[in-house]
Each structure stands twice: as structure tokens, then as C-alpha cells.
Amino acid sequence: xKRLVIAVDCDDVLxxxxxxxxxxxxxxxxxxxxxxxxxxxxxxxxxxSEEVILERWSGIKRTDGYKGLSPDPDEVxxxxxxxxxxxxxxxxxxxxxxxxxxxxxxxxHLDGVFTSMEFVGWEGSKGDVCQALRADVLIDxxxxxxxxxxxxxxxxxLWFGDYPWQxxxxxxxxxxxxxxxxxxxxEIERIASN
Length: 194
Ligand SMILES: [Mg+2]
Fold this sequence. Notes:
Elements: E1 5-8, H1 17-29, H2 43-46, H3 50-61, H4 64-67, H5 73-85, E2 87-92, H6 99-109, E3 114-119, H7 126-133, E4 137-140, H8 143-151, E5 156-160, E6 175-178, H9 181-193
Parallel strand pairs: 1-2, 1-4, 2-3, 4-5, 5-6
């Protein structure tokens, strides 16, 4: 079996971030927004101007709930198995200022699983980071990051999750849908055996 370099996204792949944001937002501001609209600051859904919505999202990023989001036990098992054979890197669009609590989450639940943690930021290119890492695989819930990785020559593109906001059409993109970590494990095994 081939040893792969695998880049793993953090939010909505490693930890369940968007459902936490939507629940917290609705409970705090009395709205009834759904996951489908989680990534669009639509005033008619979130009950405020775009500017205020973005401020509120930023406020939720400062909560202990967000900082304490952690992976579930089944997923931890899969990641530990993968790390025995492959080289794993956390590649996240989180900002540099979120490094400390992200590192604390890894130390607590996934100690020794990741070789490095890369903070791309909201504007950065995951493709560039994957290329620098010589990543064979990117696991991400966000279609645009998979496109960016494809453009930078990453061959293994795993579209993680089964979320209402994943509305893009795969078209002829060489992307494999993995709805959960068991499917990820099977797909990685297939890629590594080829
Ligand atoms: Mg994500």
C-alpha cells in the first residue's frame, strides 16, 4: 500500500461547525435559519442587515462552544488508523488567530495524528498549500477548495459530507463524494492500493 500525503479540512469535516453556528444563531437571535442558508448572509433568513449578520457570526466564533468543538469517537478511530499508514495535515481556512484553540483540540482528541497544521485564511488558496505539501488527497466539504486543489494538481479529491449547502454540480470534476468517515477510509484505501 502506498503512503499518501492527505490534507484534511477542519470545519464540517473534522468537527461539525456549521450546525453549531446555525443553532447558536437561531437560539440567540430568535431566527429559524437552516443549514441551506448557513453560508449566505441573507437578511430575510437571518433577520438583520448583512453587516450585522457577519458581526454576529464573528461573535459566535468567540464562544467557548465554537472553540470546544471536537471530533466524534468513530471519526477519531478512522483518523488514527489512517495516520498509522499515511501522512496527515490539517489544512484549514480558519485564521491564524484561531491557532491556539485549534491546536488544543488536536492535542486533546487527535494527539500525534497530524504532521502539521496549515492556516490558509478565508482568502488563501488551499490548492497552493496542498501543492507545497505535495498532497495526494484533499478531504473537504467545500467545493471551491476542491477546485483549487484540482487546479494545483492534487489527484485525490474527496468531497466530504452530506450537507444542504453542497449544491454544486460535480460535472466532469474528478471528485469522489464521501458522506462520512467510513466512506473516506474506504476511498483512501482504494487510492493507496492503486
Ligand atoms: Mg470546511
